Amino acid sequence: MNKKMTTLSLAFPLFIETFLRTLLMNVDTIMLSRYSDKAVAAVGLIQQFGMFIMILYMMGASGASILVSQNLGAKNHETASKISQAALFFNIFAGIILSIILYLLTETILGNLKLEDDVRNYGIQYFKIYVLFSTFQAISLVFSNIIRSYGYSYTPMFVNVLTNIINIVGNYLLIFGNFGFPRLGVQGVAISTVISQGTGAIILGILVYRKPEINMFIRVKFINIKRFITNILKVGVPAAGEFLSYNLAQILIIYFVTLLGTNSLASYSYASNFTRASFMLAISIGSASQILVGYYAGAGNMDKAYTLCKRNLKWGILFSGLSTVLIAIFRNFLLGKLTQNSEIIAITSVLLLISVFHEIGRPMNLIIIAALRGAGDVKFPVYTGIIMQWSISVTLAYLFGIRLGYGLAGIWAARAFEEWIRGFIMVKRWSSRRWESKVLV
Predict the structure, then answer these.
(1) What is the pLDDT of residues 246-295, one digit of tens each?
(2) Which of 66, 104, 290, 390 could form a disulfide with 370 if both were Cys (CB 3.0 to 4.6 A apart)?
């Protein structure tokens, strides 16, 4: 393993990268808030679908990252290069197919949700553009995960700086039609997003090509690519399965939110954007843990992997807790800068208070599940997630929010309750050290 690779050296640029990705979504919300609260509600809804799409693409990217990390730890450099190449082929193919299918089904998908006509129309405008070019995102995810597994964690960070600048400038020009550009509103946000993603994919590809040790663009027989894709999916499908179950559950929960009206949907969007800022560092620490645990597991150093995850969990809980408390303290000031709708401010304010409890528990899942994946224990988090998310989060969200009439606050509390229960189960799994028998090389 590269001796320079530590949790801090990986997590810091990952944090900046995650922050920039979150900023990309928050910038859309902030700039659209000056256009229309209904546009904010629509884009917030589509961003949840966007997360679902990203998770599908993560099957190839995450599976490759886990296998590459363990093979590099075991000194199998040629195999690591071939795995990287196979992941790129798979994500390009999957991106093209998925983009076409979702584009054709856009009106059917959004038409089945109980949305106001304006919100639905905004959502359709954004979704069609976003999904049609989502292959750029599929390619970027592979390049980012692979180059990070080789220890170049700053490279995706710098690329994200550039893509965020492109997105912000594009929003400024296209939402309101500044400097003679057409006034496109929600469509302008979608166009800016896909242009920035496409630029990022091209730049990352060039940078990967210039790293000779990755050797990702070597010629290889198609039959070998198929074999490596099969291995990637054996790891990647379960690895992405927990995310997939979580986001499918969230999509159903958003359907419950739509039953509460447009103000609740806008509040959900605002609160989600704020809480992303709370768990960004935990996500970054989790991603760093996955890479390092993969290296240590591949090299047979289980004690070091075990200790690393335990230490990282403590830091994740500390930082998530502090950031959520700060957001809760300044919540009314922050919300007042985004909207003048008193009902939206009141609802979102309550959600941000509940989030203090929610976000302190979230790192138990974000960090430990990532470490389990790095070690090759990819199935246990999926099975646990499916059971917990659907039997607790979705069920209680409907019970508290709809049946008992607690509204969005009840839905938010149900999500927090599930996070803590699942988190305790993950802590127990890691402490049992049963993951040590799941190493893939």
Answers:
(1) 878 888 898 899 889 888 888 888 888 788 777 888 888 998 898 899 88
(2) 290
CA distance 339 to 364: 33
| Spatial contact of 295 and 1, defined as CB atoms under 8 Å apart | yes
**Residue 441, Cβ neighbours under 10 Å: how many?**
18
pLDDT for 328-379, tens place per residue?
A: 999 888 888 878 888 989 999 999 999 999 999 999 999 999 999 888 898 8
Residue (of 280, 287, 278, 293) closest to 326 by Cα position: 278
- DSSP letter (8 states) at residue 390: I
Q: What angle do CA 396, 398, 404 make, to 5 degrees?
A: 90
> What is the residue whose two structure tokens read 């091209």?
202
Q: Say whether pTM exceeds 0.70.
A: yes
Residues 6+ apart with CB under 8 A from 154: 13
Q: DSSP string spanning 217-283? A: T----HHHHHHHHHHHHHHHHHHHHHHHHHHHHHHHHHHHHHTT-HHHHHHHHHHHHHHHHHHHHHH
The full set of domain ranges for the chain reads: 7-435
Q: What are phi and psi of 428, to 5 degrees?
A: -65, -40
Instruction: State the first-to-last Cα distance of the chain, in angstroms, to the nearest integer.
Output: 15
Do 53 and 135 touch, CB atoms closer than 8 A?
A: no
- Residue 74 belongs to what H/E stretch? none
